[in-house]
Fold:
Amino acid sequence: MVQNFGSFEQTLYEYSDEALFELRDDFFIKRVPSLQADAVSSVVLTKKLRKDTLIGTFDVVIGAELAEAALLGNCGQVREQSRRAPDWVEIVVNFGQPLTVSGVGVIDSPATPIKIGMVTAWAGTGFAKTASYSASLASMASPPHTTLVNAFAPSTETRAIFNEIRSERLLLLVLTTADAATIATSVWVHLPDAPADLELRLASGPAVWTSPGPVITGRGGWSAESKQTVSLGPALGKLLGDPTDVSESDYTITLTARIPGRLTMTEAPGNSALRFLHRVDLGADGQRAIELSEEGVQDTLLDVPDWVKSVDRVSFIAAGSLPLERIIPPVGPDPLTVLGGAIVDAGVAELVLDPDRAACTRLREDLGLAQLSGVRLPLAAGPLGAELSIVLFDALGNGEPGAPMRNGASKSLTLEAGAPESWVTFRLPRPVPLTAAAPWVVVQVSRGQVRWRLGQFKSGQATPVRRGPPEGPWLQLPSLLSSANTVGGRARAIGLAPPSAPLPPLLVELVRPPDGDDIERAARVTPTNKGASFEFPRAGTTLPHPIVPAQQQLTLRITSYIGGTVTLRTVDLVASR
Structure:
């Protein structure tokens, strides 16, 4: 009899029962090797991450090998076009693009009663009039009139093998009671071409990596095993790193291929451990103003959540308008307390100055200043108070004090009676240029008495001290003090740094255990009115030892080279859990 399927006609030959069994014996001789239908057009890797995650190195290893076959549902859209008795079904497979196909078959497991009767290619505006593959269809003459699909070697009733065709769609005529969804997961197509035109996408975004053309081992970054390592850290990092959001979401990484293949994707070994961003709560307005009354050190506490185990990076915004002058050094020198391993009494460690007795110390040569506009000295007044001034003397060739310098004399200052030690500022009438030979600072008392305590220095770093009449000559200190290379004069210079080598007014660091302290890792900060961003350690470096919070708090230490007000905003920590 003749059965009509749309534009196709297929003759179903009727056989007696005996003929049917004879044909089956012949049919089972014509088997082909089993295929593995593992070709896919995409694979997905899902990574659960918090929005505050900071991604470092994140690589994936992708594989794209030639596969034997692909299930219909893995390479195209499958729909049922018609169903006619006795269980003949027309299935349309839409690849969405031209693919080369050389076979259609049914998977072995799980077993599904599907037989392939016909395969027809797309001809541009419709399916071709002539099938690319057609088996001989026969039905039993006696009830229940079972239909037999008689294939020709090397094809079988469940495997249609034919010459390569290139088509956007296929029309399959199959004998089955299964629905389209079952057919999509049970029937495969043989794709002889290598996977091609690969892309990686994060979530639903644009492609972050592409590999145009077919995968060829040993070329285009592909290894001999058709594998390649792709770095996704920067791209994934753009979706994360929000220090204000601790919510967790699934992030999908999708590998697609225009021509399906055996696609794999795994995380590469050696990816860096995840770190997290935390924004410090600075108060209701999200900022913290720090008053710096003078040069020196001031600490401010930062609260951190209990999940923060250690911190290895800090970023912040600093706003303010600080004076251009710098005071060097901003901290110290410390008073002399130990000499030769013994505790030094204050009376031994200080110079007592009056109208007949003066003293001087030489400024450091590594001040980093181009001009000197003043000097600060740690002085205490006698019981009747004092009036005093400073005078700059130049240095002779042998380094000793020479003659007074032009514009080097300050105005006279008055210290209240019994005033305790404090850093006293002496201003010069106009800035004095500094040369390679650092000047001497002479303290001259015109009334009363002043005590100037000597300083404790590291070995070899002490600044020399001389004593004598206000105009000289100048003598060394007693041998007990002058022979020690750790005793020197305490003084701080006020001035301007050269434009070619500006000196930031602030040094910001986290307080760490002494064995991990490294001031070079701190941020040197110049605030601006609108606010400037800073981080430490600087890009490309790491802290020698991560900082562990104490009682959910960190101490941010600010060393100021000049007094003023600085406002901190957006303080973010890079932390480990």
About this structure: The chain has four domains: 2-30+73-186, 40-66+196-267, 277-323+505-576, 334-496.
